[in-house]
Amino acid sequence: MSAIAVSVPAPRSGSRQFLGFNIVTGIVLGIGGWFLGYFIGDHIHGAGLVYYSTEAGQNDVAILLGYLLGVVGFLVGLGFANYPLKRMLGAPPSLAERETEAHGLLRYFSLSTDHKVVAKQYMVGIGLFFFVGGLNAMLIRTELLQPNVHVFGANQYLTLVGLHGSMMMGIMTSGIMGPFANWLVPLMIGSRRMAFPRIESLTFWLLMAGSVILLTTIFFGGFQTGWTGYQPLGDQGTAGYDAYIGFFALVGLSMTLFGFNILVTIITMRAPGMTWSRLPIFVWASLGTATLMVLAAPMLIAALLMGAMDRTAQTAFYIAGAGGSPYLFENLFWVFGHPEVYVLALPGMGIVLELMVVFARKPLWGYRLAVAGMLGVAFLSFFVWQHHLFQSGIDADLRPFYMLSTELISLPTGFIFLCAMGTLWRGRIRFTVPMLFCLAWIFNFLWGGISGVFLSDVPSDVTTHGSFFVMAHFHYTIMGGLVFAFFAGIYYWVPKMYGYKFNERLAKIHFWVMFIAFNSTFAPLFALGFMGMPRRVVTYPANFQTLNDWVSVSAYVLGLSMLVFLANVVWSLLLKREPAEVNPWHSKSIEWQLPTPVPVQDFDRIPVFDADPYPYGVEPAPAGAPTVAPAAASI
Amino acid sequence: MDKTPHFRNVVLLWLLAMAIMLPIVIWVLGPGLPPGNATVQSHGQVVDNIVLLATSTPVALAVLVYFGYALWAFRERNPEVVLDGPAIRGNTSVQFWWLVTTTVMVLFLAAFGTIRLLADGAGGGQGPNPISIPPHATGDPPLQVQVIAQQWEFTYRYPSYGGVETRQLDLPANTLVEFHVTSLDVIHSFWAYQLGVKADANPGEDNVAYVNTLRPLSFVVRCAELCGLWHGYMFNSGRVLPKAQFVSWITQQRQQYAPATKNLPPYSKTYFPQPLRRGG
Questions:
Q1: Among A632, B31, B156, B189, which has the highest number of CB atoms less than 10 A from its own CB?
Q2: What is the pLDDT of residues A376-406, one digit of tens each?
Q3: pLDDT band (50, 70, 90) for residue A634
Q4: Angle between the N-to-C axes of helices A410-424 and B40-73, in degrees from 0 to 180, rounded to the nearest 10
Q5: Chain A residue at shortest CA distance from B132
């Protein structure tokens, strides 16, 4: 493996760099591709298809082809075609690419085969769209300040709901995996790179292309389906729904590739001595997540492809009156959709256990149980999807089975809780900011789990299905789980990734405001759901206004806490730039034994592991710490 | 290592918390749980919710009490010095009993939910071939009511009253009602909150749900599945009326809508509309 080392040729001079393959050429070719696709689509759009495009200037064939060729152009412009072409022309395999010539900031705007650069790209790119999605939530809550329509029309409101949902469910699937799995998995298993570094970069740029496509929906009338995109409602939709299809298809593609990359990396690239029983728990979480991504995401792509065919090629996969069935979409979507929510939850579990070890200063309690928990969650999540369809008129006999399987998934989730509890037992708990976020994860996920019990029970689900109760439930598990773990990871690893310290006072303010406002925002939604408020409505009965106003104001405070975080990023990482210590948390994980910032090659030589990853509480000094030579200062 | 009996303390605190909280959730919160006692099915859901709440309360309290205790008792008292805790890597008997306890709870919940569901259908949509038909209280056949959803309103057809289609859902009290829910365009969901009924309306599909009405009341019908632009406005109201009053209401509706009923398609479990596209 290490035979293919990264060599860094002398950088080209300043302005010359911009002529090469980077985001500028990507955008230029992307726009070119869009117009080419639109032109072709406009020509093949025959008279027989006029029936489908009642809106002037909205030709689904042209728009979908435009997206397709636009993405292809964007990727070619970024340089993704270079290496395959070179290899076809007989060049030897290599990791050295045009991108390694770029230096400074430009590295982050091009194809990079350095897993640490891709991780940082993910961090900023996902952060950006996370803020856009959060802004959408603020706008939704603004509309819900009053029971009647007062800020947005029904179409704008539903588009905001759809944008918020798609943005958060689509992009945040890589919320933890993108920045942290890309950065950590190779380091933790002692590899200098991912198995497929170019695919690693591809997953990121696909996600970015998809996100931009999603935002273009506002030029085409938005979409009224929410993030679930149910058919045949989607089939009715304006061309804005094409943006939804393009976005989620790219997200699905990105997830599938990402999953394969992580799986192959963990299976084949482990350093000597890194046996399965020595994998850090975050790597196990990544493995489980990657499995889910690989198996679930293709379902989504298939479902969307059929939807696109219905809209452009006169098929009728989802049209009940013409021989299709809306159930097909519902099932395909949730076969993807339920594993997908565990794609969001599992990495958070990994981060929480990983960090609790460090801040309780004890080995992970019940390592095998934690692994069983993660793999168990991953396995079971493929057998629960019809609990989204309990009242939909599926075969009545199926419901007890899905009730059982859904409730069974609380067993492996319980393992994770038990391991966290055991790890704290008689520990020496240090209340650092990352630890606070982990503890908040426990608290929030607990309520997410308890409310899940009500939703999994069919009789109880009759009332709670499709109500604000469901919405509160999955915000507790995803926002309360994923996003809190995301911030735990940021406060914990960013000092290593970027080399600068966070301002701790601002971080603590961020935590407390976010934690309190989060609960104040979402706990009342349980009550609203119980009282009978359906999801995704632009109007509601007047007697729900007090609670809704409370929620909206809390949501603004929650948004404000994100601004505190942003201020901390600007102040600590951009302005003050106080260098972080090499190992501020006194962690014994391998990534903290490396110099800050971590050199391009990660390790001077491949480490050899000879003990489990959590040598805490062992006296004298751990014999199991990986043998890492101090890396040379310059490479 | 300190000799404080931490485990005993946690258990005692947990028992104390349960002694306080369980009566509160069962007798104070419980009766207020949704969706109320207007029908047999909605009352059944309230009972279910109470049982679920009473089962999950000990779990939630165990986690909360444990973390509260652990964070206080095991906090680092001198953060200046970095010291490791004891290297405890697990405890087989704790893991075993945790697994046994949670498994028993989960199997209990699943069995309980299944029994409750199969007893009377719990008001949920059961698809075209229902398996949980509530016992007929009076021996009469159930009153069939078809719920037709379309963008963006619900209408109701009474096949046993000449197939009249009304804009309001009125039902007789103390009757078993058999809803046949279908849609003419996209997926909707028929949700009569107070009745404890929810069933998705699918185009070309018959979704059956049962409810035993009890006393007279008025209720609200809402769409619970995003169905396009005016989803938020897709609601109307209904009443459960004393039987005599219901009969006079439906007779009056039949007369009022007689001209329209003649032009309706014959009553059918499903209707196959033209596949409308781009309506929204």
A1: B189
A2: 999 999 999 999 999 999 998 999 999 999 9
A3: very low
A4: 20
A5: A396
Which chain B residues have a beta carbon less than 8 Å from that of A320? 202-205, 272, 275
Distance from CA of B221 to the nearest CA of A (A): 10
A459/B76 Cβ within 8 A: no
Whether residue A452 contacts residue A380, with contact meaning beta carbons closer than 8 Å, is answered with no
- In chain B, which residue's Cα lies nearest the Cα of A402? B110
DSSP labels, A496-557: HHH-BPPPHHHHHHHHHHHHHHHHHHHHHHHHHHHHTPBTT-S---GGGHHHHHHHHHHHHH
Output the pTM of the full model.
0.93
Give the pLDDT score at B136. Answer: 73
Q: What angle do CA A257, A259, A264 make, to 5 degrees?
A: 95
Each residue's pLDDT tens digit, B102-157: 999 999 999 999 999 998 888 999 999 999 888 876 667 899 999 999 988 999 99
Question: What pLDDT shows up at residue A43?
Answer: 84
Nearest residue of B to residue A358, measured between CA atoms: B84
**Span A105-138, pLDDT tens digits:** 778 888 888 899 999 999 999 999 999 999 999 9
Taking the Cβ of residue B131 and every Cβ of chain A, the question of whether any pair is shorter than 8 Å is answered with yes
Confidence of residue A1 (pLDDT cuts 50, 70, 90): very low
CATH number for domain B143-273, candidates 2.60.40.420, 3.40.980.10, 3.50.50.60, 3.90.190.20: 2.60.40.420
Task: Write the Ramachandran bin of B73: left for phi over 0, alpha for psi from -120 to 50, otherwise beta.
Answer: alpha
Of chain B residues 168-197, which have a CB less than 8 A from chain A? Answer: 181, 185-187, 189, 191, 193, 196-197
B63 touches chain A (CB under 8 A): yes
Q: Which residue of B lies nearest to A414 if distances are taken between CA atoms?
A: B102
Domain with CATH 2.60.40.420 in chain B: 143-273
Please report the beta strands in A218-339, taking only residues with DSSP state E, as ranges in sequence order: none
* Interface predicted TM-score (ipTM) of this complex, two decimals: 0.94
**What pLDDT is attached to residue A623?**
47
Across the interface, which of B88, B117, B185 has its CB nearest the CB of A399? B117
Strand duo B143-150 + B176-183: pairing: parallel
* B119 touches A: beta carbon within 8 Å: no
Gap from B46 CA to chain A (nearest CA, Å): 8
CA dist A317 and A471 (Å) reads 29
Q: Residue B123 and residue A461: Cβ atoms within 8 Å?
A: no
